[in-house]
Structures are given as C-alpha cells and as structure tokens.
Design a protein that fits this description.
Blueprint lengths: L2 E4 L7 H12 L2 H5 L10 H6 L3 E6 L2 E10 L4 E8 L8 H15 L4 E7 L3 H9 L3 E8 L2 E9 L3
Parallel strand pairs: 4-5
Antiparallel strand pairs: 1-2, 2-3, 3-4, 5-7, 6-7
Length: 152
Amino acid sequence: MGSLASERQLLPIVPAIADIVDQAYEHYIARMGKPPGPMLDNYAARASEGAVWVLEEGAAITGIIVLLPTTNYLLVDNVAVSPARQGLGLGRRLLAFAEAEALRRGYHEIRLYTHQTMVENQSLYASIGYEETGRGAEAGYDRVFMRKQLRG
C-alpha cells in the first residue's frame, strides 16, 4: 500500500509535504476563522530534525505525519492525508506507525492534540483508543489534548 520515508531524504520534497498539509487542512479555515497551526509549520525544519515521515503510493505522497519526542511520551504533532485519499484508512495507518515508532523508542505513551472544532478527528482518535486529557488554549488555538497508553 505504500512506504514511509523519513529524515533528510525528505528535503527535496518539502513543497509536496506542505501541499498535502494545505490540502488536508484548508477546509478548516472557515470553521476556525484562521489557518490551522499545521498550515503554518516549517516543514524544511521539521524534515531536517528527522520529525517528518511521508506515506507514498507509487511516486505520489498521500500522507504525512510529524512526530516530536519529549521526555515521557511521543507527540503526534500533525497527521495529514491527501483529500483524494481520505477515508481509505491511511490516517489510521500513519497513527499505527506512530504507535510502533513510540514503542521502538521506548515510550509507553503517545499524545496528540486537535482543534476543538475538529470533532471528526476527536471521534477518530477516541475510536482507536485515545482518551481526552483536557482542553485549553495553546499557541492561539482552542485545543483538545489526548493520549494513549501503549503496551509492547
């Protein structure tokens, strides 16, 4: 179904990564009243940090995930799937990769956040085992914070 690539091999395709993010999030602008945070991120910097993975189908990038290590957990900072490929389980595949990566790195918890207006994302995360840990404003956005305990 495709492969995941990471780190410095991504630098030449940063514009394609940013394009996937923009396509995946642009419909939220009207709902939120401003561009979602992922649309403002610096993907060249994230790729240089080794924090970005892409899901490829053939020569096309169909999804991306940004993972940030912390002291006690791995943070899913962004997950985005091309609108043309949404609904096919690619987001779940990226999240499963994140969980496996967290375990590989020795973490037993993975966290993420989403905007309070992105209720469909909250439902998806809850359906795969994430629990809400709180709500609050962060970086100018009203966020819902979630976590999942990992066993491995």
